[in-house]
Specification:
It contains 3 helices and 12 strands. It is an alpha/beta fold. A hairpin with a 2-residue loop joins strand 11 and strand 12 (about 130).
């Protein structure tokens, strides 16, 4: 006589399980699972309304690569927990940002690089305000720097600035 758990395990193994779950409105989503109303995605999981995404988890937007928990955003790379953003790279826990890079905890910012905890700012580099012309010159220099050094500077800045316990 078998125990309940053994019988239950046999029952679980006897029921077929779908390999991938995608709704009828998703198209061309290869190697992706839990895709809903998405198209042209690859290696994505649990996305809704995602177009041209790669390596995304919980995504909703267009042209997202290697992002997680990103909603209503476009042209983003390596972003995490972002909302309503455009053209951002390496941004964490930010919303309504445009063309921000290597930054954390931003709200309604544009053209910021290496910034932490800013709201409604533009043309800032490592939380220092620049004119548009000076910003563009500095960005050209920073593009040539090693990304690991930039991340290290960002980490140092992040440690020196108070931020909320939760976002």
């Amino acid at each position: 006589m078998s125990s309940f758990l053994e019988s239950y395990e046999l029952l679980k193994k006897s029921i077929p399980v779908p390999a991938l779950i995608q709704d009828a409105f998703s198209e061309n989503c290869d190697f992706s699972d839990y895709m809903f109303q998405s198209k042209d995605c690859m290696y994505c999981f649990d996305c809704f309304g995602l177009e041209r995404g790669m390596y995304c988890t919980v995504g909703w937007g267009k042209d997202l690569v290697d992002c997680q928990d990103i909603i209503r955003s476009e042209l983003c790379y390596e972003c995490l927990e972002c909302r309503d953003s455009y053209g951002c790279t390496y941004v964490f826990a930010s919303e309504r940002c445009r063309d921000c890079h290597f930054s954390n905890l931003l709200v309604s910012c544009s053209d910021c690089f290496g910034c932490v905890g800013l709201t409604h700012k533009q043309y800032c580099i490592f939380n220092k305000q620049y004119s548009k012309e000076d910003y563009l010159k500095e960005i050209e220099k920073l593009k040539k720097e090693d990304p690991d050094k930039i991340k290290q500077r960002l980490l140092e800045l992040e440690r020196s600035i108070p931020h909320p316990a939760s976002t």
